[in-house]
Design brief:
1 helix, mainly alpha
Length: 35
């Protein structure tokens, strides 16, 4: 059970990290296009 929770937590953290990087890249691209 602990392993499942750990894997789920790691998966969630990885997803959040990917979304954060994608969002940062999108914001940077928008700033470049508007700037």
């Amino acid at each position: 059970m602990l392993k499942e929770v750990t894997y789920r937590t790691v998966a969630i953290l990885a997803t959040v990290a990917v979304l954060t990087v994608a969002l940062a890249a999108a914001v940077r691209a928008a700033d470049d296009s508007t700037g």
